[in-house]
Design brief:
Helices cover 49% and strands 13% of the residues. By secondary structure, the protein is α/β, with parallel strands linked by helices. The chain starts with a strand and ends with a helix.
Amino acid sequence: MTGFFAVSEAVAQALAERRPVVALETTLVTHGLPAPEGVEAALELEREVASRGAVPATIGVLDGKLRVGLERADLERLAAGGGGGAGPTELRGGPPGGAGPAPAIARTAVASERRAAKLSLGNLAAVLASGEPGSTTVAATLFAAARVGIQVFATGGIGGVHRGASETGDVSTDLVALARFPVAVVCAGAKAVLDLEKTVEMLETLGVPVLGHGTDEFPAFYRRSSGLPVDRRYDVLRDLAVAVRAHFALGLGTGVVIGNPIPAEHEMPLELYEGSLATALADARRLGVRGREVTPYLLERLRELTASGSVFSNRALLVHNARVAAGLATAIAEGAP
């Protein structure tokens, strides 16, 4: 590894002893949840992983280092540097009803002032070189996890093919990272705002297996099913671990997506989900929100439209994914030669 990495003592020792470790991202701290819920959620995920016998490794960028294994103070620094989740007025230039679009440049400037950088593969090196703080997306977390030897990563949902991508070309770098870095990602499918059918098709094209934990269908983030089949269903974590180990042992070079549906009691009602999503997507198109701002804008808009119901579901699926990831990491470690 280069001098850009800083691995905490707890994570380094666990990896050296081949104990289970679960990577966690930090975009939820700066972009995914409103302040101060981002830091609280990150700490909750760490506790969930630790309670299941695995070592949490939350990843972010501070002081010119890609840090694997952040402390609470580090998370608070990231949140403070970014000002937490962006507010509705700043992003839309108006009240929740959205009287009119704000200039894209103005929205971007406000977001940049209030947030730590949202790091993917394309801007990671530049931010590291600058010494500025940054939170890791799925793609950047996959990269860091693979480089230090972490095999399992828990997140809310992966990025994928955006709606209207045939016109815009907007496809998340998360898919590129999944095709390059051999890490198993436990998630509630892809983020709700994406084109799920095209995302699953792209994963197949890239040679990334999609395995279901207790499901025959690719999860739809806030909803348990999408109607899209997974490659194979596993109801026992030990059996899933065998499949993941086999994939890595073959040297295929790609990651593995583990679809883990949101618990039924936390699933968002279908009517609320579909209506709120349609409104959020229409607002984003009207305002010309693009690039890295699309997902955080839509998630924030969904939070407003669902009276924070999306945050309730989001927290629940994050914890559930962390729980399953810890169990998977443990099963992989126990079966390792």
